[in-house]
What does this fold into?
Amino acid sequence: MIQEFKDFIAKGNVMDMAVGIIMGAAFTAIVGSLVDDLVTPLIGLFMGGVDFSALSASVGDAVFGYGKFIMAIINFLIISFVVFLLVKAVNKMQPPEEEAPSGPSQEDLLAEIRDALKAR
It folds into this structure.
């Protein structure tokens, strides 16, 4: 059983997944810091430091903090846009892929087959 576990852990896809999760967590910290420390204060300058977190509604003893939900949506949109810009910048730095040489089209092949059958 221990050998089966070692074999399972040693498989490439499990190790790749583990590395991806660790790198994702590190990248999340970087993007979170970028958004919290640079982008959000910059947006706060233009919006006058608007913060919706204190908005709430009460029904009996239950308190619905919909302001926190609004702030979570705003933060999600900001983070998504920053990640989009990062991915776009990284893709620009990569060299363009060379296109594979194209062969004859399907129509050309079918025409050749037709002509070969006619020649018989």
